[in-house]
Structure formats: C-alpha cells, structure tokens
Amino acid sequence: MKRSQFVWLATLLPLLFPIVAIAKNEQPGVPMLLQFAERYQQREPVQKEKVPPKQQKVRPPSPPANKSGQQSAKERELTLGLQKAQRQLLQQQQVIAGLQQQVEQLNKVKQEKVANPEFDFSTVSVMFSKLRQAMAITPNEQHAKTLVAQAQQKNLQTEQTVTQIAKQRAQEQAELAKMSQQVTDADKRYQQVSAKLHEKEQIEARLESEVVQLRGRDKLFATSEILKSATARQSYAAGVALGKDINKMEQERSGWGVDVDRQALFSGVTDAFTGQYKLVPKELDKAFSDSENVIATAREKAMKSAQKTNDEFVSNFKQKKGVQQSSSGFWYYIDYIGDEEIKGNAVIDIMVKESLTDGTVINDMESNNKVVSQPLNDYPALFQEALRLLKNHGSITLVVPPSLAYGEQGNLPEIPPNATMVYEVRIAEAKDAVVK
C-alpha cells in the first residue's frame, strides 16, 4: 500500500468509528445517514499531513456507546431534534434523495481516484449542514414562532379588551339616553307647571280686577233702604223698563241666530253709567256698526227662511179639501162644526193651541188645563170671526198671516218676525150670559 493510501485510511478511520457506534446504538425510525451526518457535523475536517501540528485541530473520535445503551447529552439532544424533524422529513424526501445521490457520486469518485487518495470533506460537511438546516428548526425560527404566538395572544387580549370597552360604552350610552329622556320629561313637566302657574297668575289678576270693578259697581245697585223714597222707586221702575227692553233686544238677536255675550252686555250698560269705557270711542263706533250689520244680515236671513216655510205650509194647507178663506184673510178648516147654536150674548169657554208653521208649539191650553172664558164680543176680532163659524163644542183650525198675528216685530224670543201662526181652537162650553 502506498503512503498516500495509508494517509487516507488513517484519516478516514476516526470518522468511521462513530458510524459504527451509531450503528450499534441505532435509533428506530431514524435513517443511518442522518445519524452519521449529525455526528460527523460535530467534527472538524482533518488536514493533510503536511500541515504543521500546531495549526491542526483534529477532534478526537466520539466515544463508543456504553453497554447500558444510554445516550450522552449530545446524543439525547440529537434524538430530540431528529424526532421533531421527522414530521418535516416527509417534505424533504426529494432533497435527501438528491443528497444521497451526491454522496454516492462522491464515494464513486473516491474509488476512482486511487492515485490521489486525498478526500475533501468540506463538500460533505456543507452538504450535511444544509441537510440539518433543512430538517431542523433553527433558533431563529423557534424565536420567530414564539414571537408569533405572543403576538397572537396579545391580539386576542386586545380583541377581548376592545369587546369589553364596546360593551361598557354601549351600557354608558344606554344610561345616557335614559338620563336624557328623564331630563326631557322633567323639562316637559316644568313647562307644564310653568304654563299652569302663568295661567293661575292671569286668573288671579283678572279676578282682582273684577273685584275692584264690582266694588265700584256696588254703588250703582239699590238697596231696600234706598227704595223707600218715591224718587228711588220711580227711578228703579225706569231701570226695570230699560232692562226689559235690553232683555227683549237680546232675545230678538238670539232668535235671529246672533250670539250675545250677556256679561259683556251688562258690562257695557254699567260702564255707560260710570263713564269708564273699556274701548276708545273709535273702537266703540266700529263695534256698534259691525253689530248692526250682523243683526241686519241675520234678520233678513231668518225672515226669508221663515217666509219660505210659511208659504210652503199655507200652500199645502189650502190644498186640503174643505179649507176656506175668511173675509179678513185667514185660512180655516172646520174640524167639527158643533152641536148647538150659540146665542149672541153667550159666554164662551175656549181652549187654544198656538204653534208655528214648522210645528213649534208656543202654547197649548188644553195640555195645561187652562180655559179662556168671556163673552163672544170681548174676544179679538180674529177669534170672534172664527167662533161665529162654529156651534157649541165645535173646533176649527186657523192659518193666520203675519198681518193678522204678531206682524213684522213678532213676539221674541218664541215668535219670530213675520211669522204665520197656526191656531187650533175648540169651544169647551157656551153658556148664556147672566143678566145683571
């Protein structure tokens, strides 16, 4: 054997020794190539024989495995690393196969180079280093995984915090909305109370003013002591007559459909005596003119409506069989002629039902058990003419035009102006007059 071959074998034997030890302590499921690469990676490449001894750093071969089968600390570390890498081996099969092919090619090259037995282990070292990096998780990757896990945990905590804050904010907004509604309700109640208080103050002020006015008006009212004198009684009677006229005017306007404020009316009468008017002369004149216009319009409207009703009633009444017109102008229908002739000087008891053409009953003497009893010649001309058409116990219906009844003025408030009247007259009894 040549010297170069001997040197090559001397260099290779220390490397093969760990492989034999690994083979004896082979781990199940772990390829031998990987076990050999891990151990070989821990060694430095052997320099050529020509390198001075001081510069060579030849590491001693790994000690063989002990008989008990226990692994050294580095072997246990290797085992753990390889177990973790097994999950990634499936993805690196092609890479390993390629590396194995490279190893086979290198071995083939070594066998062919008999003349030059030097073997360059740097290529194999680089190859196994790449293999280890491909199969194992580097510290940088482990640190990156740790950072990612920490970031995910922090992100989860942040999301939980945001959720809690959002929930708390929603609760605060609900409380704020509730408080805002309470404030709105309180403000509304305050406004209502303020409005009622203001209204109460206005009522009190008006009452105080009315009290002052009433105290001043008390002087205008007569007492029993004042009415003892003749002058006071005469003045009081004139006031009563004036009051009746005012009351009649009020009833007249009400009959025409014009509303009258009695309080304002009496206030105007009182102020006319005191001379303290609540309206200036210009306002009084305008109000009076407006009142007259309203009254004239309402009166004309009421008279037209009444005239239409009257005409329709008279037209229908005249078409009734047996209806006749008297010489004075009223229409009549004899319901019952009677039984005995009435003497010229007889006292006649009659009952009368007075009504308007629209059916409104003004008076009904029979319903009220009332009788008018007087000589025939004492009755108004209208009733004298009607009674002379009957016998004792007879009855007659009269339709009397306004000219023969209440005329243009009427008899307010019951009887409007220009009212056509309907009378149902019945003779209760006709008696001979007593000669005195």
From TrEMBL:
Q: Which residues form a coiled coil?
A: 82-116, 162-217
| Location of the PPIase FKBP-type domain | 345-431
Q: Which Gene3D superfamilies match?
A: 3.10.50.40, Peptidyl-prolyl cis-trans isomerase, FKBP-type, N-terminal domain (1.10.287.460)
The signal peptide stretch is 1-23
Sorted alphabetically, the Gene Ontology BP terms of this entry are: protein folding
Check the record and name the Pfam families matching this protein.
Answer: FKBP_C, FKBP_N
Which InterPro entries has this protein been placed in? PPIase_dom_sf, PPIase_FKBP_dom, PPIase_FKBP_N, PPIase_FKBP_N_sf
Keywords attached to this Swiss-Prot or TrEMBL record, sorted alphabetically, are: Coiled coil, Isomerase, Rotamase, Signal
- For this protein, the Enzyme Commission number is 5.2.1.8
> What's the name of the protein?
peptidylprolyl isomerase
Q: What is the scientific name of the source organism? A: Yersinia enterocolitica
